[in-house]
Amino acid sequence: MLRTLPQTQDWSAARRLGGIALFTLLTIVGARITIEIGAVPFTLQTLAVVLSGLVLGARDGALSQLAYVALVALNLPVDARMIGAAALFGATGGYIIGFVPAAFAAGWLAERWNKTLVVRWLAGIVGMAVVYAFGFTVLQARTGMSLEATWAAGVAPFLVVDAAKAVVAAALAEGGRALLQRGD
Fold it and tell me: What is the C-alpha separation between 154 and 15, in angstroms, rounded?
């Protein structure tokens, strides 16, 4: 059952699968919007990740990102650098793996405390922090950079922009949910 925003009825299996597929696709599209700034590229994927949790809820948001990771694992060039499965084993693989628990975390928090835009924004910030935790850990392990250098390359350049993405996700969440409910 999707419970992120108040609902009047359960979603059908087809509607749920459609939502999961939509957010998998949005994550792929977010990967196409890439700016190479160093070891970790800037993309719009984290916006799609957090929004998937806020709109679909913890379980289905995580499933949408698990589907994305599966596509990468199947060696499809849907990642930011279009290298397929190699992306999972490279320096930025932790960020991609972190999409699944990030969507879950944002969705879980929104399901329980989704009262205001600020609460949804904070849920988005937590989701971003989960991506950073996975990404930072793998980036540091794969590159051997110092903790400070890893922070400077893999987290610091993204903090302000990702906070803004969390605001956008929080603002779009209710509308996204309403759009998916159309026709019920």
Answer: 36
Q: For residue 122, what is the enclosing H or E element?
A: helix 117-143
Residue 5 lies in a domain: no
pLDDT in tens, 80-93: 999 999 999 999 99
The pTM is what? 0.90
**Residue 20 to residue 141: CA distance in whole angstroms:** 31
Domain count, the chain: 1
CA geometry: angle at 47 spanning 45 and 50, to 5°? 110
Contact by Cβ (8 Å): 170, 54: yes
CATH code of the domain in which 79 resides = 1.10.1760.20
- Domain residue limits at 125: 13-179
The predicted pLDDT at position 136 comes to 98
Dump strand ranges (E) for 14-158. 34-35, 42-43
